[in-house]
């Protein structure tokens, strides 16, 4: 039995608030974004991390990918501490853990073509120049795009295409762990499904471990095998995705589930009287018999 | 049929393009809102939903402008009204709430000042009376300790409270129509649910007509009577909420419902709509959805189908489902 590929051991992260003056006055107003979080992610797991703004889910993503260092506690990749791995210019770590960001338009350099962006990433992985071109085409195919996309600049792509390029760039490193921070929340609904289906296929085919950070419980239910519910910097509930969503134990998980829009089933107001019957005119009519 | 409070007829909005031509983003939109009725306008970015309502409010900024059609509010043609008349109507008879509550408020003025300004401009009351009305409105939208909260600045409010404050400002003059443009998109889900409930409640109690613009059909279906679905600057379907939810006729509406997963039922690959939303200026001559439509047949790409009404349900499709 192998251990977890990624684990967080008692991780806390705080940020100092306020400006220089506050610091000179030694005012202690630190914002605790994560408080004593422990989490084990097994190889091949697809873990959904849900919570509202301020829950610490994006902070957790930043720590897992090595963009920030924990204030206390440890982040481990295959049992090795991030701090030790970082000493080697963070190279190996960065290669093994990759990230896809929420806003694909600011995550890509607007002046570099798709081919150049992917080519530079491949160069970082040490792919020799002659092989890069064919690898770029392979990467584009992998994310469902054609080679004609190569010469285009980010602004010439649709939001869905840009997000696929963000994904292709992450995959160019052949990572073991992929962290996707709200990868579809900036996309139109009709494009969300395409990207979710793509992520689902890629995790299966490439045996990727995925941390999917989202506020959308229904998307997490579709994609993930495990779910971690966060609130105010702490994990309040975690477990197999369907178990937690069908039988939530923590009141906060229950509140999140109750808040998901449910269409007609979620109506708290009676359905309108059909226009061909009568149109409500008075306040009493609008109130209904209730 | 009851006379409409708001009637939008053949509305067109265009942008002047770089080559001197005009690119149309709203291409002949018709719909009505009855007094006290709640209508949802659903569509993706670029569908023209927000532009249509900005045109109704005469708030379009250059380079966008109305290139055709009529907007009739309570018998008055708003597109023919002068700016002075529009200023009198906006905020008093028609109020609008926007997506980002942060940028809709002046950060340098207290919440109380911003609401009393609106009240005084429209109702000609004393400062004291305006403050009383402002406090009453804040209380009405569920802000506790409203009298004291009037002295707060926007940064002292959370996102949800700011949106409540903007709704308070919108209802302070008892408008007959409230236009809410993605009012919950910038908010967390739990706060979103509260704001949607608040709008539904205000509508019932004040007899407000509501136009709720959203990209989320499931959210809209919780509070509106009727749904207007827009795609590529056109209305593709418009019907009672139950019909749209249970038996949508336009393939786009039906796919839009299918591609959003729910919290119940079997888990499997999502139904995806292939392709991408159309770009302005590159729209097909026919149905704007035809390039992505699995049901498309010969005339779809070349001829725009008319909106056909059947039992109060309008659909623009050559092959309705």
TrEMBL record, chain A:
<dbReference type="Pfam" id="PF08352">
    <property type="entry name" value="oligo_HPY"/>
</dbReference>
<dbReference type="InterPro" id="IPR017871">
    <property type="entry name" value="ABC_transporter-like_CS"/>
</dbReference>
<feature type="domain" description="ABC transporter">
    <location>
        <begin position="6"/>
        <end position="257"/>
    </location>
</feature>
<keyword id="KW-0547">Nucleotide-binding</keyword>
<keyword id="KW-0067">ATP-binding</keyword>
<dbReference type="InterPro" id="IPR013563">
    <property type="entry name" value="Oligopep_ABC_C"/>
</dbReference>
<dbReference type="InterPro" id="IPR003593">
    <property type="entry name" value="AAA+_ATPase"/>
</dbReference>
<protein>
    <submittedName>
        <fullName>Peptide/nickel transport system ATP-binding protein</fullName>
    </submittedName>
</protein>
<keyword id="KW-0813">Transport</keyword>
<comment type="similarity">
    <text>Belongs to the ABC transporter superfamily.</text>
</comment>
<dbReference type="InterPro" id="IPR003439">
    <property type="entry name" value="ABC_transporter-like_ATP-bd"/>
</dbReference>
<dbReference type="InterPro" id="IPR050319">
    <property type="entry name" value="ABC_transp_ATP-bind"/>
</dbReference>
<dbReference type="GO" id="GO:0005524">
    <property type="term" value="F:ATP binding"/>
</dbReference>
<dbReference type="InterPro" id="IPR027417">
    <property type="entry name" value="P-loop_NTPase"/>
</dbReference>
<dbReference type="Pfam" id="PF00005">
    <property type="entry name" value="ABC_tran"/>
</dbReference>
UniProtKB/TrEMBL annotation, chain B:
<feature type="domain" description="ABC transporter">
    <location>
        <begin position="8"/>
        <end position="257"/>
    </location>
</feature>
<keyword id="KW-1003">Cell membrane</keyword>
<keyword id="KW-0547">Nucleotide-binding</keyword>
<keyword id="KW-0813">Transport</keyword>
<dbReference type="InterPro" id="IPR013563">
    <property type="entry name" value="Oligopep_ABC_C"/>
</dbReference>
<dbReference type="InterPro" id="IPR017871">
    <property type="entry name" value="ABC_transporter-like_CS"/>
</dbReference>
<dbReference type="Pfam" id="PF08352">
    <property type="entry name" value="oligo_HPY"/>
</dbReference>
<dbReference type="GO" id="GO:0005524">
    <property type="term" value="F:ATP binding"/>
</dbReference>
<dbReference type="InterPro" id="IPR003593">
    <property type="entry name" value="AAA+_ATPase"/>
</dbReference>
<keyword id="KW-0472">Membrane</keyword>
<dbReference type="Pfam" id="PF00005">
    <property type="entry name" value="ABC_tran"/>
</dbReference>
<dbReference type="InterPro" id="IPR050388">
    <property type="entry name" value="ABC_Ni/Peptide_Import"/>
</dbReference>
<dbReference type="InterPro" id="IPR027417">
    <property type="entry name" value="P-loop_NTPase"/>
</dbReference>
<protein>
    <submittedName>
        <fullName>Peptide/nickel transport system ATP-binding protein/oligopeptide transport system ATP-binding protein</fullName>
    </submittedName>
</protein>
<keyword id="KW-0067">ATP-binding</keyword>
<dbReference type="InterPro" id="IPR003439">
    <property type="entry name" value="ABC_transporter-like_ATP-bd"/>
</dbReference>
<comment type="similarity">
    <text>Belongs to the ABC transporter superfamily.</text>
</comment>
């Amino acid at each position: 039995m192998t251990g977890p590929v990624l684990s967080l051991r008692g991780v806390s992260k705080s940020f100092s608030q306020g400006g220089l003056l506050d610091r000179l006055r030694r005012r202690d107003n630190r914002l605790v974004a994560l408080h004593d979080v422990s989490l084990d992610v097994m190889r091949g797991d697809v873990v959904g991390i849900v919570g509202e703004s301020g829950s610490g889910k994006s902070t957790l993503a930043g720590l897992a990918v090595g963009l920030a260092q924990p204030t206390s506690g440890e982040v481990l990749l295959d049992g090795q501490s991030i701090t030790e791995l970082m000493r080697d210019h963070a190279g190996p770590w960065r290669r093994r853990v990759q990230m896809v960001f929420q806003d694909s338009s600011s995550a890509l350099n607007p002046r570099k073509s798709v081919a150049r962006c992917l080519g530079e990433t491949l160069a970082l992985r040490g792919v020799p120049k002659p092989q890069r071109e064919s690898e770029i085409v392979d990467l584009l195919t992998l994310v469902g795009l054609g080679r004609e996309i190569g010469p285009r600049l980010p602004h010439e792509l649709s939001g869905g295409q840009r997000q696929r390029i963000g994904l292709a760039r992450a995959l160019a490193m052949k990572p073991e762990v992929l962290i996707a921070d709200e990868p579809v929340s900036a996309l139109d609904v009709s494009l969300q499904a395409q990207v979710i289906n793509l992520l689902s296929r890629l995790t299966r085919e490439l045996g990727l471990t995925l941390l999917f950070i989202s506020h959308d419980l229904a998307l997490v239910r579709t994609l993930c095998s495990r779910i971690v519910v966060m609130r105010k910097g702490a994990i309040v509930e975690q477990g197999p995705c369907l178990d937690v969503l069908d039988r939530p134990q923590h009141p906060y998980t229950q509140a999140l589930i109750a808040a998901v829009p449910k269409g007609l089933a979620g109506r708290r107001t009676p359905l309108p009287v059909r226009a061909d019957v009568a149109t409500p005119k008075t306040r009493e009519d609008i109130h209904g018999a209730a | 049929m009851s006379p409409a409070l708001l009637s939008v007829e053949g509305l067109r909005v265009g942008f002047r393009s770089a080559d001197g031509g005009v690119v149309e983003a709203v291409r002949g939109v018709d719909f009505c809102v009855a007094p006290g009725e709640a209508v949802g306008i659903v569509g993706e970015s670029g569908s023209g939903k927000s532009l249509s309502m900005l045109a109704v409010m005469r708030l379009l900024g250059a380079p966008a402008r109305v290139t055709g059609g009529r907007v009739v509010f309570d018998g008055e043609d708003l597109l023919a009204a002068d700016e002075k008349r529009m200023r009198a109507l906006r905020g008093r008879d028609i109020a609008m709430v926007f997506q980002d509550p942060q940028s809709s408020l002046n950060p340098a003025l207290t919440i109380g000042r911003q609401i009393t300004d609106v009240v005084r401009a429209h109702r000609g009351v004393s400062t004291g009376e305006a403050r009383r009305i402002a406090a009453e409105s804040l209380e009405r939208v569920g802000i506790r300790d409203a009298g004291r909260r009037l002295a707060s600045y926007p940064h002292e409010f959370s996102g949800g409270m700011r949106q409540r404050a903007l709704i308070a400002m919108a209802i302070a003059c008892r408008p007959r129509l409230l236009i809410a443009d993605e009012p919950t998109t910038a908010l967390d889900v739990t706060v979103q649910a509260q704001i949607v409930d608040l709008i539904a409640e205000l509508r019932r109690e004040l007899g407000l007509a509501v136009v709720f613009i959203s990209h989320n059909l499931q959210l809209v279906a919780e509070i509106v009577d009727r749904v207007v679905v827009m795609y590529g600057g056109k209305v593709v379907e418009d019907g009672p909420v139950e019909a749209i939810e249970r038996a949508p006729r336009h393939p786009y509406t039906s796919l839009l419902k299918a591609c959003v997963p729910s919290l119940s039922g079997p888990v499997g690959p999502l139904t995806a709509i292939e392709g991408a939303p159309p770009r302005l200026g590159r729209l097909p001559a026919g149905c704007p959805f035809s390039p992505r439509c699995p049901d498309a047949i010969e005339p779809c790409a070349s001829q725009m189908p008319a909106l056909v009404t059947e039992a109060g349900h309008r659909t623009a499709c050559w092959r309705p489902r």
